[in-house]
Structure formats: C-alpha cells, structure tokens
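_Per-residue structure_
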Amino acid sequence: MRSLDDLQVAGRTVLVRADFNVPLADSGSGARTITDDGRIRAALPTINDLRSAGARVVLVSHLGRPKGAPIPEASLAPVAARLSELLGAPVELVRDLSDAPRIVSAMSPGGVVLLENIRFDARETSMDPVERAALAAELAALADIYVADGFGVVHREQASVTDVALLLPSAAGRLVHAEAKVFQRILNDPARPFVVVLGGSKVSDKLGVIGNLLSRVDRLLIGGGMAFTFLAAQGLGVGSSLLEEDQVDTVRGFLAQAKELGVEIVLPIDIVVADAFKADANTQVVPADAIPAEWMGLDIGPATRGLFAAKLADAGTIVWNGPMGVFEMAAFAGGTRAIAETMAASGAFTVIGGGDSAAAVRLLGIDEAAFSHVSTGGGASLEFLEGRELPGLVALEESAR
C-alpha cells in the first residue's frame, strides 16, 4: 500500500477521499453548526502536505445518510467553512458535480475545493457495480492521483472509496496510513499484557470482535449495556437493563472459551442504576448481582471503576471501544470518564477505537494527546479488530500492484 511519500504530486490534481461525517446541530438561526470537528482536524496533515507540495486538492466526503438525494441539512457547507478557517485559505464548495471539471481546471497549485456530499448521488452507495463505476469514472476524470484518507469509510465498498482507487495511481493519506499501522500493530505484535475494554449498548455489535480477540488478548474488560448480557449469562438478574436474550448462549460460549484459553474476562461488580432513562432519574449504586427488578443499569459503579483501573495498571497495550455508560448524561458519565482518565495516565500503548469512545473523550474534555492513538473510524476500527479485510484498503493494495 503506497503512502503520500511514494507520490509525485507537484503541479498535479489529487482527489482525496476524506471523512467529514461530523455531527451538526441547529444554531437557532436556521444554520447548522459543527459540534465536533475532530474528523476535520484529522484530515489536515494530508491536506497540508499536498498543498505544500504544490498539488491541487479536490476533497470528497459524505455526511449522514441522505439516501441519494440532496437535502439541505446534509450539506457539507459547514465543513467547507470550517476547513477554510483551519487552513487559513478559502475552500470552495462545489455544489454540483457537473460544475467540478470547470472549477478544478481553474485551480492554482495549493488550492482546495470540496465536492458536495457525495451521497447526494445514489450511485455512491449503489449495489450495482456498473452504477458505482460510472460515478467513479466521473470522479477520476477530475484528478491525476487518488488518496484515501477517510478511515471511517474504508470498510465500505463505495464508488469514492473502492472503485475510484482502481482508476488512478492511489495511495493512503497520512490518516489512513497511521490508522492501518496502529491496528496491524495491536493485532500482530502488541506489548503485553494486552488488555481490551469493550462497552457500548449491544453485545451483538461486538460478537466478531470478541471472537477474534479472545485468542489474542490477555484480559477483556466488559462494561456498558453489553455487560448485562454477560451478567445474564452467569445467571444473574439484570432488572430492566438492556439485555439481548438471543445472545446469552453465545456469551456463555465466549466465557467458556476464555476459560479454556486462560483469558480473563472482567465484568462489573457494581452498577449505577436508575428508575428511568433520563438525566434527572432517581439513581443508586447496587451490587451487580442485586439489580432491582424495575431499575435499569446505566453505568458501571465506583467499585468497578477501581477494579478496571487495577486490571489496566500493568497493561502494555490497551484498546478501548465503547462507553461504560450513558456518558451523554452527567449522572452516568463517571465510568466512561474513569476509563479514559486511567488510560490517559497509563504508560501503555493506548488506542481509542473511534465512534462513541472518541466522542466521549472530547465531550468530557480529556486531551486526546494523552493517548497513543485516537481512531477516527468506529465501524472501520471494529472490523479491523474483527480481522476482516477492509475493501478500501484492499483497493489501495490492488492499485499498488
């Protein structure tokens, strides 16, 4: 897989597939504002390197799921405005792909334009390879080189991710190259002990990850909503907490497999429970084996936070994917904060697996620089941890042959 360092980009036009799928909120005046620009900032090293080398940069990204039709609330206009601020240079939003050839041909070296949300075109996510190929050809006609720098989409088979990579000389951008290197390291040569912390709402979302990691890790810490299926698998009542009853037998199988492999699975020993799913609900801390029937668990308790910290203390590698509770509500953010702060203070190689975990770190005001790596791709990082081949990376490898 080629990197930017393998390309000669001076005076050439480079199509960069970025991931600007950022959260937006209504500002009250009808405009949409970006509430977390982490993914935009993550793309800056590639954009700046290309500009400095004298390339013309054409950015392509999606935002949300507009289902192949233009909708104002999914416009990349706020992203173009924020990019202009961060780069200190104008970034024009090309609202119609038919206008792109004219606009791109008029660009000067070091210039940057952003194509409007590529998912406004139904061909981007089409299951028909002929339709995807047609869009990819239009994109490829704009540029001399393709650079993949949207790690959050490399697990997707889409026109701007996979198809166009095969039509132009292609390489991984700074972000994708760094992400791939980190995940290959933790899967193939992690410093020991290798400890993985998994949370989030559903165990079904993490089945592939658990299955692939059990033979690789030394210790697995389970929190979040998925913990209740593990507790139920041990015969404990979980009240009205989130429970995937259809996964209980699968989880029992994981527990048995872990025992055979000598892998320690650590579950919560106390839970913050509430009488309703709301920020001002009544709460109490109860042992994990004594959750009241009408109450729901919404965070790991203080004793569990201490236990998890102790289990992370000697780690050589820590990977975390999924919050420990409903961190968006202050009453249930303590467990997630504790994991983040423990990792930040650790001497281990620490990886935040994107998605809600990365969002939580930023929402809680914890300095991302305290971690070895904060991934920009929740879904992509999960599939990497599952051991799957990611179509966007496969396309880059095929292009390099």
The longest helix spans residues 38-52. The chain has 14 helices and 17 strands.
